[in-house]
Amino acid sequence: MGNIVDFITGLFEVWRGQVSDPDKQCVFAFLLLLLAIDIARKGWRLSWSRRAVESVAATLAIFHINVVLVPAVWLLSEQLKALYGLLGIPSVPSTVWAGLPVWMLSLLAILAHDFANYWNHRVMHLKWLWPVHAIHHSDPVVNGLTTYRVHALEMLVMWGSYTILLTWLGLPADAMGIGALILVLHNVYVHVDVDWGHGPLRMLIASPRFHRWHHADEPAAYGKNLANVFPFFDWIFGTYRVPGPCRVVMGATGVPSNDVVRLTLWPLLEWARLGRQQLKGLRTSIGGLARDASLGKVGTLDTNAD
Ligand SMILES: [Zn+2]
Ligand SMILES: [Zn+2]
Fold first, then answer.
1. Ligand with the closest atom to the CA of 117
2. Ligand 1 centroid vs 274 CA: distance in angstroms?
3. b/e per residue 126-165 (b: at least 16 CB within 10 A)
4. What is the reported pLDDT for 44?
5. Fewest CB atoms within 10 Å of the CB: 34, 136, 180, 253?
6. Cα of 27 to ligand 2 centre, how many Å?
7. CA 286 to each of CA 69, 281, 299: distance values in angstroms, whole numbers, following the listed order
8. How far is 159 from 34, CA to CA, in rounded Å?
9. Which ligand lies nearest to the CA atom of residue 191 in the structure?
10. Lowest model confidence (mean pLDDT) among 64-68, 175-179, 192-196, 297-301
11. Which of the ligands is closest to the CA of residue 130?
């Protein structure tokens, strides 16, 4: 009982910390604004269909599981940073950035972050990391909160990739802070349940339509539109795809939609399945090789007999 009380008190403390953080207040206010627009647009009942309620409940549960796991993820990422430090990779001297306006440095921070994110995201769509990233794609009702439907292991991979790809830049902390806030707000925006495109600016700033096509559950859409902010990265690296208005099904076939326990365990379950599949394939090819060898032997005997 004491443990449960400690756990709830701990969660409450985390929440208090979140609520008193001005950056988080900004994100909450933005989420509330989006919610109000959504309700005004669709009406209360339509906005809160059973599917939407289940989706939001699952996302909030995953978010809270992550809140509990964040210290472990943070510790692991600190180890990774220490390892990175041991490599002694030179960083850009801070004097290079001196004198540049904060807005320019913040823009550079966002650009560098998005470049890192593009490759991080591309890797997450490969066979062995997909079970981790699939949690983000599992949402059948993509909405502002989907931003927070991320597996704890994905946070670790993301922090790791930013350490490797961004630390050497040594950008000032205030520029990184402003950049981080803009990134979160924009990330919430692209997940909003609307099919807005950005017309002539579509290659410059990612729109909800651009990101909805990334969440589309159809083979032609898989692994496309990987950039978070700048679609031109997708255009440059050949993964841009926005065929028009997005009115297709969202989600990921084969991945549980809102089963929080299975979603949390999903990477382990899938890695076990993939491992078994790999082993089966290996056994079949070894069996095939042995069969070929024995057939070859019979052939030789036959030849000798002739
Ligand atoms: Zn993705
Ligand atoms: Zn997304």
1. 1
2. 20
3. eeebbbbbbbbbbbbbbbbbbbbbbbbbbbbbbbbbbbbb
4. 63
5. 253
6. 16
7. 42, 9, 20
8. 28
9. 2
10. 297-301
11. 1
Give the closest ligand to the alpha carbon of residue 150.
2
pLDDT for 305 equals 38
Rounded Cα–Cα distance for residues 263 and 255 (Å): 8
CA angle 59, 64, 65 (to 5 degrees): 95
96 Cα–ligand 2 center, Å = 34
Q: Compute, in angstroms, the gap from residue 217 CA to the centroid of ligand 1.
A: 11
Q: Which two tokens stand for residue 213?
A: 């096509």
Mean pLDDT is lowest, of 47-51, 82-86, 115-119, 198-202, for 47-51
Rg (CA), the chain: 24
In this predicted model, which residue has the larger pLDDT, 211 or 98?
211
Average pLDDT, the chain: 84
Q: What separation in Å is there between the alpha carbon of 191 and the centre of ligand 2?
A: 6
What is the Å distance from ligand 1's center to 238 Cα?
Answer: 15
Q: What is the pLDDT of residue 306?
A: 43
Map out the domains of the chain as residue ranges. Answer: 49-300
Residue 12 has pLDDT above 80, yes or no: no
- The lowest-confidence range among 34-38, 64-68, 143-147, 302-306 is 302-306
Amino acid letter, residue 296: G
Nearest one of 202, 2, 158 to 70, comparing CA atoms: 158
Going by the DSSP 8-state scheme, the letter that residue 148 receives in this structure is: G
Ligand in closest contact with the CA of 142: 2
Between 23 and 296, residue with greater pLDDT? 23
